[in-house]
Amino acid sequence: QVQLVESGGGVVQPGRSLRLSCTASGFSFRAYGMHWVRQAPGKGLEWAAVISYDGNTKYYTDSVKGRFTISRDNSKNTLFLQMNSLRAEDTATYYCVKDTTSYSSSGYYFDYWGRGTLVTVSS
Amino acid sequence: NFILTQPHSVSASPGKTVTISCTRSSGSIARYSVQWYQQRPGSFPTTVIFENNQRPSGVPDRFSGSIDTSSNSASLTISGLKTEDESDYYCQSYDDNNRVFGGGTRLTVL
Question: How confident is the model at residue A90 (pLDDT cuts 50, 70, 90)?
Answer without folding.
Answer: very high
